[in-house]
């Protein structure tokens, strides 16, 4: 499978969040052995109200991912992990088996994200 354009996916998500009026996002991108992923902070009136992890096909399997999700959830804010459809069931099982309290998981389709192949 072709690598997805993560920057494009994040831009789609930022646009969706921006439509809610008053919400702002700040995104960071990371590259690991298992592919790129993004971490976003969702804010309103300069107050952080939630975190989102936008994962690619294998990036959610990276060592430490579950710990990162749980650390974000410890702030008692909304935490959303978005994975590709084909990873949804396996990622959901892994997250909830590993604690997963306060973490919501969704997939690209449910979030109306359209993955596009990365063009080099």
State the helicity in percent bands.
Answer: 25-40%
Strand content: 25-35%
Biggest sheet, open or closed, and with what strands and sense?
5 strands, mixed
What is the molecular shape?
globular
The number of domains:
1
First and last CA, distance: 15 Å
Number of strands: 5
- pLDDT < 50 runs, ≥5 residues: none
Order of helices and strands: HEEEHEHE
Give the helix tally. Answer: 3
Task: Provide the gyration radius in Å.
Answer: 14 Å
What does this structure look like?
By secondary structure, the protein is α/β, with parallel strands linked by helices. It has one domain (6-101). 27% of the residues lie in helices and 33% in strands. It has three helices and five strands, in the order H-E-E-E-H-E-H-E. The protein has helices at 6-18, 65-73, 88-97, and strands spanning 23-32, 35-44, 47-55, 78-83, 103-107. The chain has a five-stranded mixed beta sheet with strand order 1-2-3-4-5, with helices on both faces. The longest helix is centred in the first third of the chain and has 13 residues, at 6-18. The mean pLDDT is 91.
